[in-house]
């Protein structure tokens, strides 16, 4: 067993950490409060090639190993989770196009997406369908060499900045089970009838937009079906979510790390009764708990990522990492707030933002209750083995 980064991962992590420390952390609190979009940070991420981390090299991407992939989200979320979200949906979409797209789709889209010249996201969730994707209502009816798309999607990250958006639709509403009639369409967002209706108000996860979008008689060419074949959309989306859960696990580790860093620094500086509160056993117990859960979450995340690098399906491993790490992030942010006392509730300190950002990690890419069922099903079926 080797629990260390290799030489390339070490250098990559150092570059990411320097970027986050210099360009993100100094502005994150202020920009988050004012609702300012992090344009300058996005431009820097483009220059670093971070919009192409899941894109094959032949199409201009970095095609990172999955441990390095999780490192990106860990470090970005340590600085500002919303910035990590900008990359999350984009690179998930790129991964799906690279994995399932036709050669023409890859050649046309991936070079522009990998450079950041074009942006993308993923259109799955609807006002009436989140976890149960087979319950979506958005339809795509064939009309000659086009589909006519009608429906709505919600909580769509990057909706206002996307040039192309993979959208899960029902190309056949009569099939049983429903997933056999579901497809992903690569929709040009400049097409008539595609509209971003509003930005959703959120507790946290600021910095990137989460929008409600509608499709009104949107005409999409038939060759925009991801992979060129109808009826594979749900499987394609779920395969992407498997990798997306590594992204969420990495972000969760980043939030927990930021909470730990803030709590430890504050406990050393804050004095009470003539000594730093870090000398009090009650505070030490909280710091020990945060650190232990943080390190366990990190190791589980890297384990799941390394299993994905081996080429195997990682439904169970990614589910475990996402479940454990997101709960660790929630606990770490709350305990860090308690260590800060009244200052933890102040917008002048970072822990207040971490406390608002962390809960989304237990919801995104499948709720943690769903993760537990995914884990259990893998164990019962024997596809996942522990011990």
UniProtKB/TrEMBL annotation:
Pfam families: Acyl-CoA_dh_1, Acyl-CoA_dh_M, Acyl-CoA_dh_N
Cited InterPro entries: Acyl-CoA_DH_CS (IPR006089), Acyl-CoA_Oxase/DH_mid-dom (IPR006091), Acyl-CoA_Oxase/DH_mid-dom_sf (IPR046373), AcylCo_DH-like_C (IPR036250), AcylCo_DH/oxidase_C (IPR009075), AcylCoA_DH/ox_N (IPR013786), AcylCoA_DH/ox_N_sf (IPR037069), AcylCoA_DH/oxidase_NM_dom_sf (IPR009100)
Domain (Acyl-CoA dehydrogenase/oxidase N-terminal) ranges: 7-117
Signal peptide: none
UniProt domain Acyl-CoA oxidase/dehydrogenase middle: residue ranges: 122-218
Cofactor(s) needed: FAD
Keyword Flavoprotein annotated: yes
Record has Oxidoreductase as a keyword: yes
Domain Acyl-CoA dehydrogenase/oxidase C-terminal: 231-379
Keywords on record: FAD, Flavoprotein, Oxidoreductase
Similarity comment text for this entry: Belongs to the acyl-CoA dehydrogenase family.
Protein name: Acyl-CoA dehydrogenase family protein
Protein's organism: Rhodococcus navarretei
């Amino acid at each position: 067993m080797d629990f260390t980064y290799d030489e390339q991962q070490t250098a990559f992590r150092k570059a990411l950490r320097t970027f986050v420390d210099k360009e993100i952390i100094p502005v994150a609190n202020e920009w988050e409060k004012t609702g300012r979009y992090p344009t300058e940070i996005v431009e820097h991420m483009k220059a670093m090639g971070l919009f192409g981390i899941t894109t094959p090299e032949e199409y201009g991407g970095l095609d990172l190993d999955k441990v390095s992939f999780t490192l990106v989200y860990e470090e970005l979320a340590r600085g500002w989770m919303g910035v990590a979200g900008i990359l999350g949906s984009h690179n998930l979409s790129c991964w799906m196009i690279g994995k399932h797209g036709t050669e023409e789709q890859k050649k046309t889209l991936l070079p522009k997406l990998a450079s950041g010249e074009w942006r993308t996201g993923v259109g799955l969730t609807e006002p009436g369908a989140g976890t149960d994707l087979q319950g979506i209502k958005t339809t795509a009816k064939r009309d000659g060499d086009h589909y006519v798309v009608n429906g709505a999607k919600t909580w769509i990250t990057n909706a206002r900045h996307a040039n192309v958006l993979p959208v899960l639709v029902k190309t056949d509403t009569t099939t049983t089970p429903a997933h056999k009639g579901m497809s992903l369409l690569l929709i040009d967002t400049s097409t008539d009838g595609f509209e971003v209706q509003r930005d959703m108000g959120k507790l946290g996860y600021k910095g990137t937009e989460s929008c409600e979008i509608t499709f009104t008689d949107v005409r999409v060419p038939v060759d925009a079906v991801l992979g060129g074949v109808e009826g594979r959309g749900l499987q394609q989306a779920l395969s992407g979510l498997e990798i997306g859960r590594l992204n969420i696990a990495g972000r969760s580790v980043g939030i927990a790390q930021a909470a730990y860093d803030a709590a430890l620094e504050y406990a050393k500086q804050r004095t009470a009764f003539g000594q730093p509160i870090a000398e009090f056993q009650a505070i030490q117990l909280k710091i020990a708990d945060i650190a232990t859960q943080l390190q366990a979450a990190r190791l589980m995340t890297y384990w799941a990522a390394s299993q994905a690098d081996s080429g195997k399906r990682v439904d169970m491993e990614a589910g475990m990492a996402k479940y454990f790490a997101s709960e660790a992030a929630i606990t770490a942010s709350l305990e860090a707030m308690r260590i800060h006392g009244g200052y933890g509730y102040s917008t002048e300190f970072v822990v207040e933002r971490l406390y608002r950002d962390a809960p989304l990690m237990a919801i995104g890419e499948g709720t943690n209750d769903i993760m537990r069922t995914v884990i259990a099903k893998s164990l019962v079926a024997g596809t996942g083995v522990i011990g």
